[in-house]
């Protein structure tokens, strides 16, 4: 059985319970619980409040004329309007498939593409370092349809394959394109995971228009508890198979979450042209991330043992200026030969091991989206760390 | 690829769109969309209204001290209180696992039990006629962990197996117990699906206390759009594996749906001791179902070609009197040698083919939970039907 990445969360103290004696607590930055944005949504007040009556949203069906009949029409509208306002993805001539988070959608897409392939199992790859959850998602049911083949760098197996491209990448924040390039191969399929392709994290340099693009509500606004993601899918047969997967997997997606997401995305769209940082969520988010990254870079610079990737500036079409990247995760490395995840655990800081992301012991993934006090405790502990050399 | 049972829904007219010219429309009673109860919830007014602010429910986590850390504590409380008030299931010394409908939980349970088994694939069986969706749920990912082996009657394969027991049964409403009985076999596992074990459908004759019991919000109150189900699980290792499955499958379950379900279940519990039919949901539901079943039985009696199962009366501990069963589906049969699903389709009535439930062409499953006007159109068409003999 695969090692499950979130299962250990319940065994440690989460952000939620850290209120009083934070200094003694384990701080969990292993997962990417995006609680950093709560403050913004508290300040925005009743504009995002939804009221649901006892007789609302009872049917399985949202729109029987839609291929994705469990998608609430107002959510579909809000998704299209937001992408149009931000300019990060094309929505025209595409099917929108809603999912219980992009987690369910990624599996739906892998299922759909491999179901439609001529031979099985279809290889699934991602360039290291990759989102460690991809490993679990493609192995836990031991499907005969597809097979996780690990790192896309050096992948040369014949036959159908699916490459998962995450850009900006989780865990290391780099801008990614496909690595296994077989342009004339009909059996080469790509799923683009754009969870972090939003202007608070990265410059919006182009309007993406790939075959299958995944987005998640969790990482845009921080509403992870809603479990809402969406896929923009060009091919009808693929969209249909994804819908079929979600029907058998969970007979659709929570209507309550969908209408709340619709409301919040609409507010996001309305406020995203505002010059005010307290009003415009992306401005607010960018400032917060900038502030955190500057603090982290300062600690890393002072330490002389830690490393962080460097990101090039790029012109952001949304902010209309050249900007830095402030990824949702820090891909923290060390110059020493040491097991960094264990070293950090000793300091009561939980992070994700680089090895789980197809990398090495010298790297860990650290969430940058915790609550402010938790982030500050992390910085303090990092600044005070003395590494033990191993081999 | 398996035939997907709900995918064809989008191609026909659903209840939702039937308003004006119902007489010409296709009425879809294939699925069990439980819209029959909307009227009750409309009348109950603001007692079930939930208001959710923009900054609420943002984290992945509901309670990090709970094995099922994505379960909202107020939902756990509401579930326990309702079972206690109705007396249909034991909740003490059990883990509650919440799922995106009992659909996700059934797969989580099959996954958990087979993951923990010594050899693979584990056989999965259900006594015919069975819930046709079980076939899709256990085949669509082509898992190497388990294998659908069909009808439990006559199943004699050696090795580990899981029997799915639905009681009252979907599609035929009968009270079920295990069919493959290997009491001394450690490899014999059972999942009890109690979706319909509520007092509006069937007499509550005992407080169930099996190892794994599944329930769904959809069929109790009709809130199918919320996608909430729960499992009561005795064994910690099984509960843990189920939680792991749900983490990888969808990283938990919509918080919005959970808190709304909690609110509605609490109202259900508060009103379930009331003598008033307009107040007590189970009284209301039972009267509505009684009325529908009496009308259907009348049509069937008049026709002389259709058949329906007979259900024995039993003493209901909840209503404290001897009562009939009024199942959520009618298991309609015909005395003629005919393909009943096609005959009904010709009359623009969509039903589920008996063959898909492991039975024959002479039977279909008909939802009894549609809106009233749709149900009446069905009765009218059934009364006017002339069957064409085949063979």
From TrEMBL, chains A, B:
Known catalytic reactions: L-tryptophan + pyruvate = indole-3-pyruvate + L-alanine; L-tryptophan + 2-oxoglutarate = indole-3-pyruvate + L-glutamate
Can you name one GO molecular function term for this protein? Answer: L-tryptophan:2-oxoglutarate aminotransferase activity
* Gene Ontology terms: cellular component: cytoplasm
What keywords appear on the UniProt entry? Aminotransferase, Auxin biosynthesis, Cytoplasm, Pyridoxal phosphate, Transferase
* InterPro entries (alphabetical): Alliinase_C (IPR006948), Alliinase_N_sf (IPR037029), Ethylene_sulfur-biosynth (IPR050478), PyrdxlP-dep_Trfase (IPR015424), PyrdxlP-dep_Trfase_major (IPR015421), PyrdxlP-dep_Trfase_small (IPR015422)
Q: Record's PANTHER family?
A: BIFUNCTIONAL ASPARTATE AMINOTRANSFERASE AND GLUTAMATE/ASPARTATE-PREPHENATE AMINOTRANSFERASE-RELATED, L-TRYPTOPHAN--PYRUVATE AMINOTRANSFERASE 1
Q: Which SUPFAM superfamilies match?
A: PLP-dependent transferases
Biological process (GO) annotations held by this record are:
auxin biosynthetic process; cotyledon vascular tissue pattern formation; primary root development; response to ethylene
Superkingdom of the source species: Eukaryota
> What protein is this chain from?
L-tryptophan--pyruvate aminotransferase 1
Give the record's family classification.
Belongs to the alliinase family.
User: What region holds the Alliinase C-terminal domain?
Assistant: 27-385
Pathway given for this chain reads: Plant hormone metabolism; auxin biosynthesis
Any idea where this protein resides?
Cytoplasm
Q: Which Pfam families match?
A: Alliinase_C
Q: What cofactor does its activity depend on?
A: pyridoxal 5'-phosphate
Transferase: present as a keyword of the record?
yes
């Amino acid at each position: 059985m695969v090692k499950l990445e979130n299962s250990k969360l319940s065994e440690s103290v989460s952000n939620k319970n850290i209120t009083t004696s934070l200094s003694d607590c384990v701080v969990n930055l292993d997962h990417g619980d995006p609680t950093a944005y709560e403050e913004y949504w508290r300040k925005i007040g009743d504009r995002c409040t939804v009221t649901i009556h006892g007789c609302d949203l009872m049917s399985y069906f949202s729109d029987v004329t839609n291929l994705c009949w469990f998608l609430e029409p107002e959510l579909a509208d809000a998704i299209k309007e937001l992408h149009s306002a931000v300019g990060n993805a094309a929505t025209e001539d595409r099917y929108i498939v809603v999912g219980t988070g992009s987690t369910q959608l990624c599996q739906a897409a892998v299922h759909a593409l491999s179901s439609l392939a001529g031979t099985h199992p279809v290889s699934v790859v991602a360039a290291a370092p990759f989102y460690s959850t991809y490993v679990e998602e493609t192995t836990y049911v031991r499907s005969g349809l597809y097979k996780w083949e690990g790192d896309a760098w050096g992948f040369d197996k014949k036959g159908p394959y699916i490459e998962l491209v995450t850009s900006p990448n989780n865990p290391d924040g780099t801008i990614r394109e496909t690595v296994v390039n077989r342009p004339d191969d009909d059996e080469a399929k790509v799923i683009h995971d754009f969870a972090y392709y939003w202007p608070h994290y990265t410059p919006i340099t182009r309007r993406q228009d790939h075959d299958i693009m995944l987005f998640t509500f969790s990482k845009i606004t921080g509403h992870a508890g809603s479990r809402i993601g969406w896929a923009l899918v060009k091919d009808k047969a693929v969209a249909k198979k994804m819908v079929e997967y979600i029907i058998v997997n969970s007979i659709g997606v929570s209507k309550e979450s969908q209408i709340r997401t619709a409301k919040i995305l609409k507010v996001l769209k309305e406020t995203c042209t505002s010059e005010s940082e307290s009003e415009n969520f992306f401005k607010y988010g960018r400032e917060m991330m900038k502030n955190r990254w500057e603090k982290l870079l300062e600690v890393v610079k002072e330490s002389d043992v830690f490393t962080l990737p460097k990101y090039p500036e790029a012109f952001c079409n949304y902010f209309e200026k050249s900007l830095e990247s402030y990824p949702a995760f820090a891909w923290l490395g060390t110059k020493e030969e040491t097991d960094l995840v264990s070293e950090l655990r000793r300091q009561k800081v939980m992070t994700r091991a680089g090895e789980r992301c197809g990398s090495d012991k010298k790297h860990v993934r650290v969430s940058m989206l915790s609550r402010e006090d938790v982030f500050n405790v992390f910085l303090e502990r990092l600044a005070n760390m003395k590494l033990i050399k191993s081999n």
